[in-house]
Amino acid sequence: MRLNIAPACLMPVVALFLLARPAAADSTFVAASFTTDRDAHEVSHPADTQFEINAAHSFDNGVILGASTEYENTAFSDKANVKIEGILGYRVPLGDLFSLTGSAGLGGHFRASGSEENFPYYVFRVATDIKVTEDVTWNALSFRYRNAFDPDDDFLTPQIATGISYDLDQHNVISGKVQYNLKDRKPDTVGFEIDFGYRF
Hints:
- The chain is mainly β.
- The protein has one helix spanning 11-18, and strands at 27-39, 42-58, 63-74, 80-94, 98-113, 119-131, 136-148, 159-167, 172-183, 186-199.
- The chain has a ten-stranded antiparallel beta barrel.
């Protein structure tokens, strides 16, 4: 098994720590999401469905610790898998309206049914958020680089996404996101995600 991590993928995370400065107060966020992925070449054709539960704690120094579990079922088949992931991140406020968040994580891909293999993977994420109003945040652009430690597991799955979050009140948040997913650097699916979250 060999580690296949491009050094360039580490640069956004390094930059975030170099820019580090105090962020918001301690808070915890838990959320549940539903995503339907459609074929990137024919959006009317379903590809898979995903259910995810995640939780993250943000410290007042900007450090973020998080974990998630996701169930994915491939359309028109008995193939399903579960992903369990843990991340370490950092959020940098860039003025009152902008923020930049980067994270790195490790995960496990487990077969729930079908013939897929179990394997570990790594993931890097960078996201930019823009405060539009007191209650609305434009999750302007996020990028995910994800791959298995062993290239033979065929799990190179980058993602580009954008979305909107709306604070229903002090604790409850609803958000929507559009995702463009690639596999082996080729168009794969377009995802439509809706999230319900609680902040405390």
